[in-house]
Amino acid sequence: MPYESEKELPNKIRERLPEHAQEIFMNAYNNAWKQYEDPAKRRDIESREEVANRVAWSAVKNTYEKKGEKWVRKVENNKESEILV
């Protein structure tokens, strides 16, 4: 089901991702939830929730990367990543 605020995200997401990454996750999840309502738009037997989660994590990984146990914003031009957690 879609999320109305970051407070509704699973604890695993809220505890591990920086606030901005949580926003990205939630927005991507909610958009995918709407987009993949029709089962014909999904691959194989994936549930709507599985697809929305996959899309949301992909969106997060476009901007953030995991360094050890922390998620950090990716920085262009090989500069050091900014630790945000």
End-to-end separation:
27 Å
Computed CA radius of gyration, to the nearest angstrom: 14 Å
Shape from CA axes? globular
Overall number of structural domains: 1
Number of strands: 3
Q: Mean pLDDT across all residues, rounded?
A: 88
What this model shows, in words?
- The structure is a single chain.
- With 85 residues, the protein is an alpha+beta fold.
- The chain has a single domain, classed as ChaB (Rna Polymerase Sigma Factor, Chain: A).
- Helices cover 46% and strands 12% of the residues.
- The protein is built from 3 helices and 3 strands; from the N terminus they run H-H-H-E-E-E.
- The protein has a 3-stranded antiparallel beta sheet with strand order 1-2-3.
- A hairpin with an 8-residue loop joins strand 2 and strand 3.
- Helix 2 packs antiparallel against helix 3.
- It starts with 10 loop residues before the first helix and ends with a strand.
- The mean pLDDT is 88.
Summarize the structure.
It contains 3 helices and 3 strands, in the order H-H-H-E-E-E.
Question: How is the secondary structure organized here?
Answer:
Elements (H helix, E strand, L loop, with lengths): L10 H6 L2 H17 L12 H16 E4 L2 E4 L8 E2 L2
Antiparallel strand pairs: 1-2, 2-3
